[in-house]
Amino acid sequence: MPKLPEVETICRKLVYGDRSIPSIIGAKILTAEILWEGSLAEPSTEEFLERISNTEIQGIHRRGKYFVFELTEQKLVMHLRMSGDLILTSDHEEIPKYARIVFYFNNGYHLNFVDSRKFGRVWLTCELEKILGSLGSEPLSEAYTSEILFADLQRHHRQIKPLLLDQSFIAGLGNIYTDEALYLAKIHPLKKSNEITRAQAEQLFKAIQTVLQKGIQMNGASIDWVYRGGNFQNSLMVYRRKGERCYNCGDEIKRIVVGQRGTHYCPTCQPIK
User: Fold this and answer.
1) In the CATH scheme, what is the code of domain 146-265?
2) CA angle centred on 266, ends 263 and 269, rounded to 5°
3) What would the DSSP string read from start to end of 50-118?
4) Residue 64: how many other CB atoms lie within 10 Å
5) What is the mean pLDDT of the chain?
6) Contacts of 179 (CB under 8 A, 6+ apart)
7) pLDDT per residue over 112-152, tens digit each?
8) Alpha carbon 97 to chain centroid distance?
9) Residues in contact with 68: Cβ distance below 8 Å, sequence separation at least 6, in sequence order
10) What local confidence, expressed as pLDDT, does residue 224 receive?
11) Of 86, 85, 84, 54, whose CA–CA distance to 71 is shortest?
């Protein structure tokens, strides 16, 4: 499943373009084609096609794992879920396999909402808060601080690993980046959030920022991102390294299940106390 760094990577590519594709900011959506109606969360297919036609993309940003396309007086929101991807192709190219919704632009390109498992969803709305209102703090926002993180941790009595994965607590973290952040912060994944000290919260804040920013710089990780991979998986310290030696202390990396998620940690660098 694409997490914050992978979604941010796609978002930046659509905003700024690269050598292979142009930016789509300012492009007009001439029409759309719904190839599988289940991908469309709201509104109805008929209303969606009517409202999306001849609208201009004025901006694109990310909120957690969601894409938000700023259109004239409405928002186009997308979530890739388990296996989704956004692929911009020329009108001379074939529609990719597993494309569920295709947006045709006036610049000779079309954007394909691709999703092999059909879990991804698309919304066209004027009420963004209805879709994103339950999301927690944006971890890379300038407004987010270690003080806020510490206060939020103290308000809960939960194991830190599942709490960090809770999108209503922090938006965008996933299994890979949570394991890596906890390792850098030297915090055991089973430690209760309200037992984390102010100093540990500061370390955790810095670790979250570090792993997310590094993930973005390396275009994400290709372990769970099946359609276009980054290189972050080549820099992992603990995730999926069960039985291997810790780069810091030489102890054996362990794997446990926390909140139904496979979790990797170093017992020496991340003591439970």
Assistant:
1) 1.10.8.50
2) 135
3) HHHTTEE--EEEEETTEEEEEETTEEEEEE-TTTEEEEEEETTSPPPTTEEEEEEETTSEEEEEEESSS
4) 21
5) 94
6) 161, 189, 238, 239, 263, 264, 265
7) 999 999 999 999 999 999 999 999 999 999 999 999 999 99
8) 23
9) 60, 61, 62, 75, 76, 77, 128, 132
10) 55
11) 54
Write out the two tokens for 77.
């929101």
Contacts of residues 260-267 at CB distance under 8 Å and 24 or more positions apart, as own/partner, are 261/161, 261/162, 261/165, 261/175, 262/175, 263/161, 263/175, 263/179, 263/189, 264/179, 264/183, 264/238, 264/239, 264/240, 265/179, 265/182, 265/183, 265/188, 265/189, 265/238, 266/183, 266/238
Strand pairing class (28-34; 99-105): antiparallel
Residue type, 258: V
Instruction: Give φ, ψ of 114 to 5 degrees.
Output: -105, 135
Per the confidence metrics, is the pTM higher than 0.70? yes
CA distances from 65 to 5, 98, 125, 145, 202 (A): 9, 21, 17, 20, 24
Neighbours of 108 (CB within 10 A): 11
Domain 4-132: CATH class, spelled out? alpha beta
Q: Which amino acid is at 152?
A: D
Q: Where in the chain is the domain with CATH 1.10.8.50?
A: 146-265
For CATH 3.20.190.10, the residue range(s) in the chain are: 4-132
Residue 138 has φ and ψ, to the nearest 5°, of: -90, 110
